[in-house]
Amino acid sequence: MRWKEQLLKLKPYQPGKSTGEVKRQYGLSDIVKLASNENPFGSSEKVREEIAGYPGKFSVYPDGYASELRTSLAEHLGVSEGQIILGNGSDEIIQMIARGLLSPQTNTVMAAPTFPQYKHNGIIEGCGITEILLVNGAHDLEGMAAAIDERTSVVWLCSPNNPTGIHITEEELTAFMARIPDDVLVVLDEAYFEYVTAENYHDSMRLLQQYKNLIILRTFSKIYGLASFRVGYGIAHEDTIRALEPVREPFNVNSLAQAAAIAALSDQAFIDECRRENRAGLQQFYDFCDHAGLKYYPSEGNFILIDLNRNGQEVFQFLLERGYIVRSGTALGFPTCIRVTVGSKEQNDGVIRVIKEFLNVDTAISK
Ligand SMILES: *Cc1c(COP(=O)(O)O)cnc(C)c1O
Q1: Does any ligand 1 atom lie closer than 6 A to the CB of residue 300?
Q2: What's the pLDDT score for residue 364?
């Protein structure tokens, strides 16, 4: 068969080990998964109530326009309903953008390391890929702007960046947008938007009024705790959304997911509480790293990239065998690091205790 040639070198997404698998393999009864930046506090009680009493019929197709969710989101965000596109997770919106704009005649610019789906989708569409290395974990926006040429069709920004947690500032983003040709779409992935507390974080909604070539991606998978439902969305100028809409599958967000997202959005007190808890959790990690003399990237997300100066895979394995699943930096472009999702206070204490154990064992061996 005539598969696209580029598919031959692509690997399917490698999900982290499931907790069931790890329990069986290492004979553990408790597993703490701090690998996928899921919300350790779950989701709002309102979601559970909504789903438990869900009145809809399963035999009918979902509302393809997600009207009710759209109205709630537009109100919440202060934009028009026509400025929103819904996705089966923001992953699907990344795919739609790639499908709509990338081809072998174009190229796309992104940071490295960053969220892998930008590159993955670019490769599938067969476009040229230009990766501009991060500087101290932050986007090199100068380098990225300079890399744009007449074939560039999409530029990807991730703020805060996964896996470093470093955000782009308002000043940086404003200056960047002013340099970008208006036929190049800038995708600003704000998957961790609700976790951000930095005062100089960009106000991308304001920039939307000025730039048709900007689309913001957000998701219900992270702080809203609805990763299993798959709901993400894009916000852009109405003309941009109109151009992208035909790429979207007609019934891409299912009915239960729409109901869950509406319920989740209505409980902002839960979101505020999670943001506060996350800040306190990050501080636990900062205190530990500072005390242990470990380098880390200060984070605006719900995860932290810690440099242990050892093979990340080795640290990953040590933690795994003791019941903690984190992400090895090896696959993330930071081979001496691990990325740890910020958990509850107890979970953070637990993983920190095992990292300490690793460091002690490690020093003992090297003596
Ligand atoms: C988790 C994540 C996403 C994907 O979110 P979904 O809405 O679950 O598809 C997108 N971008 C970044 C940077 C992420 O970390």
Answers
A1: no
A2: 64
